[in-house]
Write a structure and sequence with these properties.
Layout: H1 4-17, H2 33-44, H3 60-69, H4 71-88, E1 94-99, E2 104-108, H5 128-131, H6 135-142, E3 146-149, E4 161-169, E5 175-184, H7 190-215, E6 220-225, E7 231-236, E8 242-245, H8 247-253, H9 278-281, E9 285-289, E10 296-302, H10 349-353, H11 357-369, E11 376-379, H12 386-396, E12 404-408, H13 414-422, H14 439-443, E13 448-452, H15 459-471, E14 473-474, E15 483-484, E16 488-493, H16 497-502, H17 508-514, E17 517-520, H18 530-542, E18 548-549, H19 551-559, H20 565-579, E19 584-585, E20 592-593, E21 610-611, E22 633-635, E23 641-643, H21 647-665, H22 670-677, H23 681-690
Parallel strand pairs: 11-16, 11-17, 12-13, 13-16, 18-19
Antiparallel strand pairs: 1-2, 1-5, 3-4, 4-5, 6-7, 6-10, 7-8, 9-10, 14-15, 20-21, 22-23
Helix pairs in contact: 1-2, 4-7, 18-20, 20-21, 21-22, 22-23
Length: 695
């Protein structure tokens, strides 16, 4: 942050250099938004950047009147603000809604004194004419998203603030206010504010869509992407007559059409004969081409929220009339979500959410931030499905056509993380590939990079990762030439990062850079849909085979604390479906880790922390074979012993039992057993050796 003298010098110099005609303070030729605003402040409003400044505020009674006058806008904005605040507040940000006059009419604030700015409370006046260059006021003048970083504010009093605002437009494309995300943190990085600006723009887009869909709730709506977080919306009646266009759609079509003289959708797009029956195609994705050899747009068609409006409802409108202004209406329920879908490579976000309210909230929030390049941090215990959630995020994001690259920060030795993650040039070190290696960051360019177990990354590598995330450039070891990359970062950890920061094991600035959107995935024992999840996992493992879980087995599964979470559940059920008789999984087929033996278990098994089902169901399994699991330890994937009672011991035991049972069913035929277990023969042979299974 600059001192007062440097701050004033920068503003005066930049404003004076801006090529504007005298008195032309809104010239579209002004390429530098900040400099244009500074010039308006000096020449238009006669402000002095060195002057002491006190923000204006209305009385409580006047604020109440302001809120009543903007009640509809507040009602539409509040659900989106509340959903967004749950994540950004963790990093110290606050969210406010500004009226067309620049007054903050409602806010969700982080009242931590380290981040909260009293000057941004509800009722304060942020019109540029009142407070100089600031995100809300300048955004309202420019009518576009604006980020104002520390000393970009005209008055030095606000230099500790960083703000990002995006304009809000009514369904008939009139400017009605601005949404703002801000923080008081002089140490904030400019690159972080750019990310927040994308988040703010997406928030404004969703609020605008809420208003538009409610205003045209009796019409079919075509939605198409204009930018990463901007969407055009067109409302039509059953006769394909244009009823309304939002601000983004009008901006896109302004140079192509005279909207005031257009009524038919087919004056905008080339006629598509598939759109004969709008009701049948509701919810479908279509590709439409703009008239006169224009671009192709991917369009989603949605049905009316209420009974559709027909052409007769608009019979009084002339053929040359512009799209009608929407009626004033109270907010309605949100548009129903699309049905769950499986992605090409795994679970969808809806599958991850299941019927658990906390996970449903997580998914709704993630969908709001997709496309804005906001880093996502997944928190949760081992085995809760952070990797599946990360892949589902990628598959539902605009980057799904790009690569999904996963990198486990805990599984790679410290000495190799540099070369594996950042890459290296030819001959960078002894043993390096002759052609070099691009590294995971470059491999993920244009797609998603999943940094699993980020909390275990060595502190020495965290500095370099932070530089890459801030600059968007990576320099492979021994290359000497930086490469620009564009990646969506999703990080995950089961560590308490705040504790590791306090211990000096994790950089605080890296945490803030990764924690753009924080998703806390609940453990299996806390999920409200535990029963449904157990049944869904079993169904997926059964691959079409009809299996049921007996009440006694379900009772055991529901009572278990699941220290290994979904990963442990998958192994327990996989073992059960291989050894169960018929199509019913009973309690005799379930082996669970507990603090003691289950009723009916026998001490001769020698593993109290992992209590199997009664001995009768173990006939023909690995229990009679001896080996490492019967001594209270298991052999992990690395060949090292795993302590009895741990989640890894439970998983290894379940895997060993499943392999043994499958071999028995296949008469000792390794090839058949490998096919049944969906393993390669080489992998199965390694596991047979690891678990010392005789076959």
């Amino acid at each position: 942050m600059l001192d007062l003298r440097s701050h004033v010098s920068r503003i005066v110099s930049s404003a004076n250099q801006l090529a504007l005609s005298p008195g032309d303070f809104h010239s579209p030729r002004a390429a530098d938004t900040m400099a244009a605003s500074w010039r308006r402040c000096m020449e238009g409003y006669r402000f002095d950047p060195a002057a002491k400044f006190r923000i204006e505020a209305v009385s409580d009674a006047e604020l109440k009147l302001q809120r009543e006058a903007h009640d509809e806008l507040i009602q539409f904005a509040r659900p989106e603000i509340d959903a967004m605040f749950g994540a950004v507040s963790l990093s110290g940000f606050s969210i406010s809604l500004g009226s067309l006059d620049g007054y903050i009419i409602t806010e969700r604030a982080n009242y931590n004194p380290e981040f909260y700015s009293e000057v941004e409370r509800a009722g304060t006046a942020w019109a540029e004419q009142s407070a100089g260059t600031n995100a809300i006021g300048t955004c309202l003048i420019e009518r576009k998203p604006v980020g104002v970083f520390t000393n970009d504010h005209f008055f030095y009093e606000f230099s500790a603030l960083s703000c990002a605002s995006a304009p809000l437009f009514s369904p008939d494309a009139e400017l009605v206010g601005a949404i703002n995300i801000s923080i008081r943190n002089p140490e904030l990085q400019r690159e972080t504010l750019k990310v927040v600006l994308g988040l703010t723009t997406g928030l404004a887009d969703r609020i605008g869509e809420r208003m538009f869909r409610q205003a045209f709730r009796r019409n079919y709506i075509l939605k198409f992407a204009i930018g990463p977080v901007d969407h055009g919306l067109i409302a039509v009646d059953e006769d394909f007559q244009l009823v309304g266009l939002n601000h983004a759609a009008r901006e896109l079509l302004r140079d192509r059409l005279q909207l005031a003289r257009v009524r038919s959708l087919w004056a905008v797009f080339e006629r598509d004969h598939r759109l004969i029956d709008l009701a049948r195609l509701a919810g479908a994705e279509l590709t439409l081409h703009l008239q006169k050899g224009g671009d192709a747009l991917s369009v989603t068609l949605s049905a009316p929220l209420e009974g559709p409006a027909t052409a007769s409802r608009h019979a009084g409108a002339s053929a040359d009339a512009a799209p009608q202004s929407p009626p004033r209406a109270r907010p309605a329920a949100p548009t129903p979500a699309a049905p769950p879908r499986l992605t090409a490579r795994g679970l969808s976000l809806d599958d991850c959410a299941g019927a658990d309210p906390r996970m449903a909230t997580n998914v709704r929030f993630v969908r709001r931030v997709l496309g804005g390049s906001l880093p996502i941090l997944l928190l949760g215990e081992t085995g809760v499905g952070k990797d599946a959630f990360a892949r589902a995020v990628h598959e539902e994001s605009p980057r799904r056509g790009g690569p999904f690259v996963a990198f486990n920060c805990a599984s790679v030795p410290d000495t190799l993380i540099d070369s594996e993650l950042f890459g290296y040039g030819s001959g960078a070190f002894t043993g390096a590939r002759r052609e070099g290696s691009p590294g995971r960051l470059v491999e993920a360019d244009g797609g998603t990079l999943f940094l699993d177990e980020i909390g275990d990354m060595p502190i020495s590598q965290q500095t370099r990762l932070l530089h890459v995330l801030e600059s968007g450039e990576v320099m492979p070891l021994g290359s000497g030439r930086p490469r620009r990359i564009d990646v969506q970062v999703v990080a995950a950890t089961n560590q308490d990062l705040e504790s590791r920061i306090g211990q000096g094991l994790f950089r605080q600035d890296l945490f803030y850079r990764l924690a753009g959107a924080v998703i806390d995935i609940p453990p299996l024992r806390e999920r409200a849909d535990r029963r449904e999840l157990i049944e869904a996992v079993l169904a997926r493992l059964a691959e079409g085979k009809r299996l049921e879980i007996a009440p006694d087995a379900m009772a055991l599964l529901m009572q278990h604390d699941w220290p290994g979470n979904v990963r442990e559940l998958r192994h327990v059920l996989n073992r059960a479906l291989h050894i169960c008789e018929g199509n019913v999984v009973t309690a005799r087929d379930i082996a669970l880790r507990t603090g003691g033996r289950m009723p009916g278990s026998q001490a001769s098994f020698g593993r109290p922390p992992f209590a199997p089902a009664p001995a009768a169901c173990m006939a023909g399994t690995g229990a009679a074979l001896g080996g490492p699991l019967d001594s209270g330890t298991a052999v992990g994937d690395t060949g090292a012993e795993v302590e009895a009672g741990s989640a890894r011991h439970a998983i290894a035991s379940a895997e060993r039992d499943a392999i043994t049972a499958t071999l028995a069913r296949c008469g000792g035929n390794v090839k058949a057993a490998a096919a049944a277990l969906q393993l390669s023969r080489a992998t199965l042979y390694r596991k047979l050796q690891r678990y010392q299974i005789v076959h």
